[in-house]
Every structure is written in structure tokens, then in C-alpha cells.
Amino acid sequence: MSELMEISSHGSNRELTLNRPQAFNAFNLEMMTDLAHQLQRLATDSEVKGVVITGRGKAFCAGGDLEWISEFSDQYGRSFHVLAAQFHAAILEIKRMNKPVVAAINGAAAGGGFSMALACDFRVMESHAVMKQAYSSNGLCLDGGGSFTLTRLVGTAKAMEIATFDEKITAEKALELGLVTKVVETGKSLESSIELLDRISHGSMHAFGIAKKFITNSYQYSFETCLELEREALAACGNHRDGVEGINAFKEKRKPKF
Fold first, then answer.
1. Neighbouring-strand partners of residue 130
2. Largest distance between two CA atoms of the chain
3. Verdict on whether the full-model pTM lies above 0.90
């Protein structure tokens, strides 16, 4: 792991910190390769129950580093192609892992940072922070799954407004639109994110993983297919130790111990 990424432990949770504060944590190829690798590793670590992504300094993430892109002279398209491959590998890990991933938005989340935050399962945003789509103002288009997640979070019409006019979105407005889970005081996003993960970890992580997968993939299937997948998963849950414990706890009028 390079100096551009930091990882720390909070009990069974892990904090991944983007560490380019001088560039507002804009990511180059090295940083994004590190992030994708760390997410892949944490996804398969049985000791890890949840992940927080945050940024060092004043920003969460300013997106792809256009200074790095500009070093490719007139080959901007090639550099975007290479960088997006690693960025999208990281996004896929966030969406596919059967563990909760929280974005602790400690400052500006713009461009790829905006899309990365939206890809997380939950977003805790500090009251002073702002979100900005940023792509269209630079003649670019959404990446990092932004066109998928933004539309599903706010609806087609509002997503079109955000993608077209590229206005700053305050924490208050982000909460109103449903872009974030909660807004907290300045300096409290990491603490609040860890508390959220701890709360989730007290429930069935098996059930969480299934719910995350179903919700993420729900637009890909017909209603009938969703029903059949749910039936199969429910039967599997009934045979899983968490399902057995949950039903027994219900019968015995006690809290389940997952």
C-alpha cells in the first residue's frame, strides 16, 4: 500500500482514508489501484464486518486528478480509460461485498468523489460539506456508476437537473434529496459512521448481505424473477444459523444473538 492510502482499525470495522490532502484527495492511478486492492482484501477478510471510506484534510474526494490526466498531453481519452478501469474496480467491490460500506463525507465530494460516495451503502455528511457532480462543468460525463446510483436515489427528473446544471449541493439539501443518510456536526462524520456500522453488526450480517445484493440488483430483474430469488433466499436463510437463531429468539421472547 502506498502513502496515498491509509487503513486503520475500529474494532471489527476498517477505515480507508484517501491521503492526498494537498490535492483535496483527487485520485490518480496509484491511489485508485490501492483503494481497489484494499477493498478486495477487506471484502474477503472474515474478521472485518464493515468499512468506512473518508478523506484526509478538508475534502472527502475531489474526483479524478485532472492534473494527472493532463500529463498525457492530447491522449486524455486514453488516460481516462486507464484510470476509470481501476476506479470502477473499486466501485464494484463496494457494491458487491456483503458488508456495509459507509462514506464519511468530511468535506467536498465532487466528480468521482461524488460518484464514489453514492456507491456506498450509507453516507454520513458533515454539515459544512458540499457535494458537486462536477463532470459536466468540465465537459465530461458521470462515471463510477453515478448515472446508476444518482437516478435511483433522487429519481430521473432530479438526476437530470443535477447532471445538467451542476450546482453545489449543501448537506441540508443532500439530506432533503435523499443523497445522504444523515448530517452531523463538523468533525463527527467518522465517529458517526463507525457507530452506524456497529449498529448494523449487532444484527444478522448474513441477512444484510442478501438485502444489499437484492436491492443493488433489483432493477435487472422482472418482478417474477425477484419473487423466485426471494423465495430461494428465504429458504436458505431458514437453514442458516442466523435464521434459526432469529426464529428461536422470537419463540422464546428474547433478543437474538447473531
1. 170
2. 69
3. yes
